[in-house]
Design brief:
Layout lengths: L4 H13 L2 H7 L4 H5 L6 H17 L4 H12 L7 E6 L2 E8 L13 E7 L10 E6 L2 H12 L9 H5 L2
Antiparallel strand pairs: 1-2, 3-4
Helix pairs in contact: 1-2, 1-4, 5-6
Length: 163
């Protein structure tokens, strides 16, 4: 089955933002037709899947690579980026960024924001660093969903008490 010109345009537009309504409007469908779920037609669904697979192959995107990126965010540890210096044997102390060469490979994928400011020459201002990681909870949810690890809807508390 081949697609009409408008349906082919819909598929191309759908790949832009995965929004069927907006894709239909951009492809030239009227508002009323755009409200119908054009993307549910079997031949259009098949065309979308094929186009998505071709795009993923062109860019070298695989399910394993996506899961690896989720895992890097989900299991990131702040200690990969910052190290503490003990002061006079006390806990805590100053923290500083680890040199990039000392960070484990691929860990920077977990960084959302990194900012460092050195102390002033007068000694009145302190050096400060700000490290923010991507949302670990969202990454863990996505991983568990993709791997089928979602928690059951009902948990048997009696079974948990036996442990």
């Amino acid at each position: 089955m081949s697609l009409s010109d408008r349906e082919a345009m819909f598929v191309r537009e759908y790949l832009i933002d995965a929004n069927a309504h907006r894709a239909a409007l951009r492809a030239g469908y009227r508002e009323k037709a755009a409200k119908c779920d054009i993307a549910r037609k079997p031949k259009i669904r098949r065309a979308i899947r094929l186009a998505q697979a071709a795009r993923a192959e062109r860019h070298g995107i695989t399910a394993a690579r996506v899961l690896l990126e989720y895992a890097r965010v989900a299991f990131a540890d702040m200690n990969d980026f910052v190290e503490a210096e003990a002061l006079d044997g006390r806990r805590g102390g100053r923290r500083r960024l680890k040199p990039l060469a000392a960070m484990p490979p691929g860990r920077s994928a977990a960084l959302r924001f990194l900012w460092a400011r050195g102390g002033g020459t007068t000694g009145r201002t302190r050096a400060s660093i700000h490290v923010q990681l991507h949302d670990k909870t969202r990454a863990l949810r996505a991983l568990s969903r993709h791997l089928g690890l979602e928690a059951p809807a009902r948990i048997d508390l009696g079974a948990l008490r036996r442990f």
